[in-house]
Write a structure and sequence with these properties.
- By secondary structure, the chain is mostly helical.
- It contains 9 helices and no strands.
- The chain has one domain: Vanadium-containing Chloroperoxidase, domain 1 (Up-down Bundle).
- 66% of the residues lie in helices and 0% in strands.
Amino acid sequence: MQRRRAIQWFIAMFLVFAIPAGIAATTMDRFELHLLMHPFHSAGWDSFFRWGTHLADGLVPTAVALLLLLYKDLRSFLMLGLAAGLSAIVTQLLKRGPFADEDRPFMFRESLGDLHWVLELDLHHHNSFPSGHATTAVSMCLALTILIGRPTWGAMLACLAVVLAYSRVYLSQHFTADIIAGGAIGLVVTLGVYHLLYKSRFSEKPWLDRRLWRVQNQ
């Protein structure tokens, strides 16, 4: 029950931000929306988002998954590992397949006028849609919510996922639609992995609850 409530809190908090942003992304000019999504900027915020965005790099969930493999059961490792890995694969297939021609904000800098650019950053040019960082942020934070199983953590981790996703817009590495799509992929894939590992017949496999050291000593 606690785990289900935690998931519900995560989804609710995520949708509080995602629904208005999604509506805006489908009804507004993307350049106008991108400018609207930059109501503030400073050297402090530049540094905060420039470094904070790395929490949604693929290396972070990989490192956390390996720690789970060493210190928790295999179910926990697979929950985070499969959620982050499968959602990343879906995003990359879309990014480099049907949406390969979607360019990033820097390619439209003339249309964006006096937008503040974080020039210390390596600004990418292509493969904008969907956002891989947003996918990772949502999949990792939702997987951690499932593992922790506390509603308060669900709400806090959802807010963290939103901040990490927004960092990609603040840094002008993505448009708003990119992070909405990436976040949706992370959400759907992670919920699918959750069903597989906690709700399906497969979830009844006894080896899922074994720890790595027990496997090694058999």
